[in-house]
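Lecture 7, part 2: worked example. A protein chain together with LH2STWOF.
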Amino acid sequence: MVDYRKEGLVAIFEVNNPPVNSLSKNVRQGFVDGLSKATNDPEVKAVIIIGKGRTFIAGANIKDFGKPMEELMSSSPSLIDIGNMLEESEKPIICAIHGAGLGGGLELCLFSHYRLAVKSARVGFPEVNLGILPAAAGTQRLPRLVDITVAMDIISSGRHVAAPEALKYGILDQIVEGDLLKESIKFAHSVIGKPLEPRRLRNLACKSILYCISVIHQFCLKSVRNAADLSYEAGLMMENTYFKYLITGFQSFALRYSFFAERTARKWQLPSGANAANTKPLNVQTTGIIGAGTMGTGIAVSLLRAGYPVILVEQNQEFLDKGVDMIRNILKDGVSRRLMTEDRMKQCLKALKASVDLKHLANVDLVIEAVYENISLKQEIFKKLDYICKPSALLCSNTSSIDIDMNVYGKETSAETVATIMDFGKKIGKVSILVKSCHLFVANRMHGCFQTEAKFILEEGALPDEVDRILEDFGMPMGPFKVSDLAGIDISCRIQHEVAKQHDIELTLQTRFFRGERYSSLSNRLYELGRLGRKTGKGWYRYEKPGGKNAIPDNDIKDVIRIHCKELGIEQRQISTQEILERCLYSAINEGFKIIEEGVVDKPEDIDVIWWYGFGFPRYMGGPMFYASQTGLKKVYDRVCYYHKNFPYSSHWVPSDLLRRLSTAPNPVPITQWKTVLHSKL
Ligand SMILES: C/C=C(\C)C(=O)SCCNC(=O)CCNC(=O)[C@H](O)C(C)(C)COP(=O)(O)OP(=O)(O)OC[C@H]1O[C@@H](n2cnc3c(N)ncnc32)[C@H](O)[C@@H]1OP(=O)(O)O
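Predicted complex, written out as structure tokens:
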């Protein structure tokens, strides 16, 4: 709703629709009612639109987009109706922005005559992140206000533009210091009686059409181009046509799911009843990191960038110096890529202390252990930390495979600690997902199935570049073999040998089964040939030089695979695109269902979020679990059973019971309800 009040000559429309003042139907109606009052009240000479609570206006209500097209389109008053009324008003309309003015929120500002904001405010058109375009005249009005290149950047990137930058472009008229409402009322008095015609964007010509030809390839860009080529009315009509097309498409559907999935994933809860809403995080001010390798230094950079002082500890002085150099280089690179200023880099380096003595961690609030994957070493470190650190310090471990319960606390972790870590993750700009301990955790456990199947597929007849291309066409940023070359083939081989050693087994090039499971020794063959990936200039591909980035398909690899298969008597065949996609994706998805079944994650959305951030799974596909829900669980289940029959020695093909039960439900169960099936009779 919109609260209406008057302060002298000025009518104030305060948008009051918590939590983020989205433009639901009652808010839109509130604008119409408010405008009617203000227009008919001779005392009112100007109108201020302001948001109540934490933000100005976060745009249209995204939940409305799931409604049928007819209902969506006929839901009056539309944003454009309101916009037209604002623009045509004979009394100046001033938007006073704090928090965020996004999507329809910014569009309303562009229909208004003046725009003021506090310094911390942000504006933007994030619609591309929902698979649509700003369709309440955003693509027609922004290019009439700012240079077309700026409009294209803002619309096609979806980025949030900070108030000072928006002021520079002319999106804002003024940045306000002090009380936003008071200052806006002063501003309103200063513009009463001034001509409004030059402030009505629809009457302005689009600013320069330079540059657009080369980048117009998507609907947003086409639409912005229309602002230059067509009349305002024709441009609007096309914008509406594109919107109707996009909003009914799969990508927009998946992107809207992703928007809410990310927010749902933040809402952690523990069996005790503690959750994100009822548990207060502790205040973390100082941090320590143990281990100056790739992980430790990477984490240090994130903490320093977020403004935390870091004490980096490494037992060996030479490794410590290398680690500090690595941190310096990453920060310098950030400066050269204009991600931070030189001054900021200096502040970060000043906040970094390096030591070879764990005792320097005595007073820190949070310690992250990031040494290599060796349980005894980790346990020894935590024993020492128990004595050294203050009792309230949080002790965290960075591990991808070691059972957290054998290391630091897992099952015993307090709700307060969980709340603090989740909050800390957000503060350092990361997305944190709460998972229970399980072998390889969620990401590596699922991705392991994906990678393993990819390797089996090579043994059966496909080539690395073929498999990679198919998965990249699907939307993954890099296929599994390019990823393997990047990570280093030696790394995965060493881990495999380490695990085998723990079971008193020696892996050789002839090994075809390991602990009752089908096993491929193909990577070990590359390892023995010194083809370790990018770093040696050869791996599953060849590269222009050691450390090179251009993956070139290599004929030699064909021979390596052929010899491997001949020696082991593995028959090769033609493998279809469908089979490659299904085996990589469905094996991981089936494992994902087992992960939900075991309660390792609280909800399927958690898995999808992990896959976007961990592996770059395309958000416009929603994530592996959403993808499965859209493919049809019956189809996924049937194919999992089919592969299980054909590949009985791979436990990742044993069908998940949850998947089976969901696949036999009389009606498709929405992804948000999957968990309920765990406790039902289905
Ligand atoms: C045509 C298309 C038009 C005209 C459009 O306007 S499309 C919508 C464009 N706008 C957006 O995409 C903005 C989306 N929102 C955000 O980016 C952020 O919410 C925020 C920057 C505005 C605030 O961020 P933050 O303070 O971190 O809060 P949350 O993101 O956690 O959001 C709080 C709750 O509000 C729900 N929400 C947010 N925006 C919308 C929206 N536009 N429609 C419906 N609901 C929205 C969000 O899901 C959170 O809900 P809960 O999880 O708490 O239930």
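The first helix runs from residue 25 to 40. The chain has 29 helices and 16 strands. Keep this in mind for problem set question 3.
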